[in-house]
């Protein structure tokens, strides 16, 4: 696609655009406040209501806590109490007091084991809650860091192990790029909050393995699934290609997300005075370019398809809101890093799509899924359970690439 049709103004930094982003963020936060229930936060339906059978889930509780922490730092009223509620839930009913770590939901709903993906978000939530001034957050941060170091981080592999049984005795024979991607994000935040650069070193080792060692040798397509020896599992979930967390094949949205994280890692290491590889920017460019080339308009209609096969043909053609949020954020990050106009063209492209198809001005928030004809659907993601991707997409364009989000917001408020 040519981006010549989009006006290449400096709108990312224009007062009008930043004001619009701020207002959209406030609208998203206001909608998400209804997700609170006794044991944490739960997913909302398409109308913004808690379903009758709503259950506090750790992943939603952690993401909401992270977002409400950033909202409080921004100065949005009523959010600190929600942060404290999230921290209390993650320190109480969602935490395994016997074996350590976190359930996917309160224990009475059954044993779901311990997943790296989920624990990365608990660490992210705790770090943001510390920045927001939550009184109990430092203890949660320490607990999350210790669990990651004791059970998930493999210094030998330079990455996270994937999942364990509740008592940590049985380990899943699988390694995943998705959990390690979110660990990279969490490690950047942990480095900012703790001042310990070991987290930046660990983030770099993850990126070296999954991006520098695997994706760049695969045409800048992220390989998602591996066995415990980090051999690619190309046909993983071929019979269940639309899985919400482990889909088959190539996920263009993750190409965008990794692209942005590489730039954050580069900036964070430079800010800390650490040795920084010169391949991070070229890798970020390659991931972004590949996701645009093969993911956008892949089936002839506007939008980014959820997945592709290894021949770059669409498999799951639904358009998910998080994919477009990450695409816009990656375009903004690359423009901020390079100043090159075509990234701003893509930024306009993605936000035009979001504005036209994903923002729900009638019921609130964003439609989380569209069908191949760009009509609201719910085959993969029902309702509107997730504030995280959309809210970050409206925050990131106004912030530097380092430090991480909550810390950057806090520093921006101090300098105003």
Secondary structure: elements and pairs:
Elements: H1 15-32, E1 36-37, E2 40-41, H2 58-74, H3 79-91, E3 114-115, H4 116-132, H5 137-152, E4 153-154, E5 159-160, E6 163-164, E7 175-176, H6 177-194, H7 198-215, E8 225-226, H8 252-271, H9 280-295, E9 319-320, H10 321-338, H11 341-358, E10 369-370, H12 388-395, H13 405-415
Antiparallel strand pairs: 1-2, 3-6, 4-5, 7-8, 9-10
Helix pairs in contact: 1-12, 2-3, 2-4, 2-13, 3-4, 4-5, 4-6, 4-13, 6-7, 6-8, 7-8, 8-9, 8-10, 10-11, 10-12
> How many helical elements?
13
String of helices and strands: HEEHHEHHEEEEHHEHHEHHEHH
Strand order of the largest sheet: 1-2
**Proportion of residues in β-strands:** under 5%
Q: Give average pLDDT, whole number.
A: 95
Radius of gyration: 20 Å
Largest sheet: 2 strands, antiparallel
CATH topology (fold) name: Glycosyltransferase
Please report the distance between the alpha carbons of the first and last residues. Answer: 39 Å
**Alpha-beta classification:** mainly alpha
Organism: Pseudomonas urmiensis
InterPro entries: 6-hairpin_glycosidase_sf, 6hp_glycosidase-like_sf, AGE/CE
Family: Belongs to the N-acylglucosamine 2-epimerase family.
Protein name: AGE family epimerase/isomerase
How would you portray this structure in words?
Keywords: Isomerase. The structure is a single chain. This protein has one domain: Glycosyltransferase, CATH 1.50.10. Helix content is 50%, strand content 5%. The protein has 13 helices and ten strands. A hairpin with a 2-residue loop joins strand 1 and strand 2. Helix 2 runs antiparallel to helix 3 and helix 6 runs antiparallel to helix 7. The two termini are 39 Å apart.
């Amino acid at each position: 696609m040519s981006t010549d049709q989009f006006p290449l103004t400096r709108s990312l930094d224009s007062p009008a655009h930043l004001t619009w982003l701020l207002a959209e963020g406030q609208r998203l936060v206001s909608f998400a406040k209804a997700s609170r229930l006794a044991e944490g936060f739960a997913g909302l339906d398409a109308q913004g209501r808690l379903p009758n059978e709503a259950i506090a889930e750790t992943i939603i509780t952690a993401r909401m806590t992270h977002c409400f922490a950033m909202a409080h730092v921004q100065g949005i009223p009523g959010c600190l109490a929600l942060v404290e509620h999230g921290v209390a839930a993650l320190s109480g009913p969602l935490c395994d007091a016997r074996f350590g770590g976190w359930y996917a939901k309160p224990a009475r709903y059954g044993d779901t084991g311990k997943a790296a993906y989920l624990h990365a978000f608990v660490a992210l939530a705790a770090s943001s809650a510390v920045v927001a001034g939550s009184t109990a957050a430092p203890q949660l941060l320490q607990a999350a860091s210790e669990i990651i170091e004791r059970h998930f981080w493999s210094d030998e592999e330079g990455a996270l192990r994937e999942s364990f049984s509740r008592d940590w005795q049985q380990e899943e024979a699988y390694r995943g790029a998705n959990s390690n991607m979110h660990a990279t994000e969490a490690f950047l935040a942990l480095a900012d909050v703790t001042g310990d650069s070991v987290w930046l070193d660990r983030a770099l080792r993850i990126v070296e393995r999954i991006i520098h060692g695997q994706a760049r040798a695969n045409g800048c397509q992220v390989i998602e699934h591996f066995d415990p020896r980090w051999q690619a599992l190309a046909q993983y979930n071929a019979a269940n290609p639309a899985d919400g967390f482990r889909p088959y094949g190539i996920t263009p949205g993750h190409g965008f997300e990794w692209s942005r994280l590489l730039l954050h890692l580069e900036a964070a290491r430079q800010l800390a005075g650490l040795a920084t590889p010169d391949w991070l920017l070229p890798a970020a460019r390659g991931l972004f370019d590949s996701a645009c080339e093969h993911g956008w308009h892949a089936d002839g209609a506007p939008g980014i398809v959820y997945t592709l096969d290894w021949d770059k043909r669409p498999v799951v053609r639904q358009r998910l809101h998080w994919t477009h949020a990450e695409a816009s954020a990656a375009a903004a990050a690359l423009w901020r890093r390079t100043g090159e106009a075509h990234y701003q063209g893509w930024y306009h492209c993605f936000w035009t799509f979001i504005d036209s198809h994903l923002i729900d001005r009638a019921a609130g928030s964003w439609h989380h899924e569209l069908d191949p004809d760009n009509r609201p659907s719910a085959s993969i993601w029902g309702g509107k359970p997730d504030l995280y991707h959309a809210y970050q997409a409206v925050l990131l364009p106004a912030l530097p690439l380092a430090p991480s989000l909550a810390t950057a917001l806090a520093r921006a408020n101090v300098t105003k």
